[in-house]
Amino acid sequence: QVQLVESGGGLVQPGGSLRLSCAASGSIARFSTMGWYRQAPGKQRDLVATITSGGSTNYADSVKGRFAISRDNAKNTVYLQMNSLKPEDTAVYYCYLVLLPRTYWGQGTQVTVSS
User: Fold this and answer.
1) What one-character-per-residue DSSP string does the chain give?
2) pLDDT in tens, 43-94
3) Is the pLDDT at 26 greater than 90, yes or no?
4) CB neighbours of residue 85 within 10 Å
5) What is the pLDDT of residue 28?
6) How far apart are CA 27 and CA 57, in angstroms?
C-alpha cells in the first residue's frame, strides 16, 4: 500500500510562487512515475506535470515555462515549483504515483491565486 502526503498549498497573489511537495511512503516510489493533476471548481481533473523514475518530465501547455517538477528519490518525494502564478491556476492539486496496475492519489492541497 502506497500513501501520498501533499503539502505547500496556500493563498498567493498573482505573479507569486509556491512549492508543492508530495512524500510517498515506501522506497518503491523511486521506481515509479509520479506527478500532479489539478481540479478547479466545476471542472475536470487535468494533468499538470509528470516525472518518470529516470527524470523525464512532461507538462501541460498551460504551465510550460512557469512550473517545474522534480524529485528526490532519497526522500521518496516529488516537488512542483510554481512561478508566475495566475488566477486560473487556482485549483486543488493532487499528487499521483503509478505503480501498475494501480494509480495512487494524495488527498489534495488547495492553491488559490488571488489579490
Assistant:
1) ---EEEE--EEE-TT--EEEEEEESSGGGGGSEEEEEEE-TTS-EEEEEEE-TT--EEE-GGGTTTEEEEEETTTTEEEEEE-S--GGG-EEEEEEEEETTEEEE---EEEEE--
2) 999 999 999 999 999 999 999 999 999 999 888 999 999 999 999 999 999 9
3) no
4) 22
5) 73
6) 20
